[in-house]
Structures are given as structure tokens and as C-alpha cells.
């Protein structure tokens, strides 16, 4: 009604939507706020179906991991940038590329056969679940 920020509403939203919890743990955990796009990994939320040349289908999840290493901003610096330079992340990416310091990521997929999905102990299509990493 007032459109004022309300910490209770923020936490109510998160606790009532379990699909948000994984992201919240990242934000409030050691990973915190990335120091721009170059220093963050990316993970696909959804499970996709890929079919190979032989017509065999598999379920997959996509991941890309930064080759620059993880780097985060302290909360006070992030707050400062949010007000003084909201385009910090895109500007940092552009400037790095312009200088020839092109960032890179390694792309990975996790693969699950149809049989593995049927026998999985959790729902592999549930956004709140993380597939085991090996």
C-alpha cells in the first residue's frame, strides 16, 4: 500500500517460495555479490532434453564457470556502486574486452539418462534441487 520497503515482506516472500532459497543462500553466503560478470559462474535452473544423432534422449543441466576465478564485492562497495554506477558490471565487462582482456568461461553439462531420471531419489525437474556434482 505504501510501497515502502518492508524487511518482513522480503523474508516472507523468500520463505514462502522455496525455489528462491538456493539463490538466497548464494547471496548471503560466501559467494555474496559478484564483482561484475567476469567473476561469476552461471547455472541453468531448468532441466533440458537433448537428443543425440542416434535419437537417444537425455536430460541435461547447463553450467558455465568463470576462468577468471570468483571475485566478490564487499557489501559497502556494492551499495556504493548501486547508487553511483548501476552499470558497473556491464561497464567492467565492456572495458575488459576493449582492452583485449577478454573473459572466458568453461561450459559444462550434466547428463542424466531417462532411466536415471526415473530412478532418481529426487525430482530432477524441481528447481529447488541441485543435481549432485561428481
TrEMBL record:
Task: Give the gene name.
Answer: Cat
Has UniProt tagged this entry with the keyword Iron? yes
Tell me which PROSITE patterns the record gives.
CATALASE_3
**Record PANTHER family:** CATALASE
* Protein name stated in the entry: Catalase
Q: Which GO terms describe its cellular component?
A: mitochondrion; peroxisome
Q: Which SMART domains match?
A: Catalase
Taxonomy, superkingdom: Eukaryota
Q: Which GO terms describe its biological process?
A: hydrogen peroxide catabolic process; response to hydrogen peroxide
Q: Which residues belong to any copy of the Catalase core domain?
A: 1-134
As for family, the record states:
Belongs to the catalase family.
What keywords tag this UniProt record? Heme, Iron, Metal-binding, Oxidoreductase, Peroxidase
Q: Which InterPro entries does its entry note? A: Catalase (IPR018028), Catalase_core (IPR011614), Catalase_sf (IPR020835)
Q: What is a GO molecular function of this protein?
A: heme binding
Return the Pfam families for the record.
Catalase
Amino acid at each position: 500500500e505504501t510501497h515502502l520497503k518492508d524487511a518482513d515482506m522480503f523474508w516472507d516472500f523468500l520463505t514462502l517460495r522455496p525455489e528462491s532459497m538456493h539463490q538466497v543462500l548464494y547471496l548471503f553466503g560466501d559467494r555474496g555479490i559478484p564483482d561484475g560478470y567476469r567473476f561469476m559462474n552461471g547455472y541453468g535452473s531448468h532441466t533440458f532434453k537433448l537428443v543425440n544423432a542416434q535419437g537417444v534422449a537425455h536430460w541435461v543441466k547447463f553450467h558455465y564457470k568463470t576462468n577468471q576465478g570468483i571475485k566478490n564485492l564487499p557489501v559497502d562497495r556494492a551499495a556504493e556502486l548501486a547508487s553511483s554506477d548501476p552499470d558497473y558490471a556491464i561497464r567492467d565487462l565492456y572495458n575488459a574486452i576493449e582492452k583485449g582482456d577478454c573473459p572466458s568461461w568453461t561450459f559444462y553439462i550434466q547428463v542424466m539418462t531417462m532411466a536415471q531420471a526415473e530412478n532418481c531419489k529426487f525430482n530432477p525437474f524441481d528447481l529447488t534441487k541441485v543435481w549432485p556434482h561428481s
